[in-house]
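[step 3/7] fold_predict: job queued, chain A
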Amino acid sequence: MTQPKVKTINRGQGAARGRWYVDQVTGDKLPSVTSISGQLPKPAIAYWRGKLVAQAAVEDFGTVANFIGKGQTDAAIDFLKRAPDRSSGKAAELGSTIHDLVDRHNKGEDLSRLHPEHRPFIDQYELYIKEFNPGVMESEVTVWSDTHGYAGTLDQISMFDDDAVLIDVKTGASGVWPDVAIQLAAYARADCIIDAQGERRPMPQIDGAAVLWLRPDKFELVPVRALDDDVFAVFLALQQVASWSHEVSKTVLGPPLKPEITTQKEAADGPQ
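[step 4/7] structure written:
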């Protein structure tokens, strides 16, 4: 996951939780691209979470049985339901580390001493650089859209011959999923690039988009159709869903109504 250089805050709880970017100069706050695009339903995630819970029940049977044997059924349930979070947390941590190392590589830092788990990813990144020879214009920069009301941090803008191409780096074992196009569509239509001090510079004209899928034993550069209006329209629709989740849904229900109480005297006197 990309780590923003611009200040961010988290709002909401559970499914309504989202990240917001803060302009340090104006104080303006905009929801993140990932919080908006994350509103897209993902049925495969539900299956994946159920599978990990089932695996934990089998593979960690001793731990679960120990909780139950001590009468700690709530602890057993909590251990099982958190199995997906433990797995995704490790993957997210690895992904964040690789993103940081790729950014450091782009900035020319010495990466000769790396953890053995990380070195194969960087070897594959260096192989990608050698084979495709991209000119990295921007690396890990935050983009801002006053026009449409969002902000986000993209991985790279690289030059391939005369074309400026958005590059999103993915490290997950499951590969590249179509919804990345929604995220890249938003980045491509941002108004400007903004730094941690709130200074802005023009967003370059984007000519294309792609995902660089890095794994320890290979890499793939996958083109993504992200610049067309129909893809951006999906992002704008999800923006409305995000607004519902984070804001509008909190305003639509009022307090329960109570029936009027009529006293015995009022009943005897009848209507006035």
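[step 5/7] annotate
The mean pLDDT is 88.
Residues 113 and 119 are 8 Å apart (CA to CA).
exit 0
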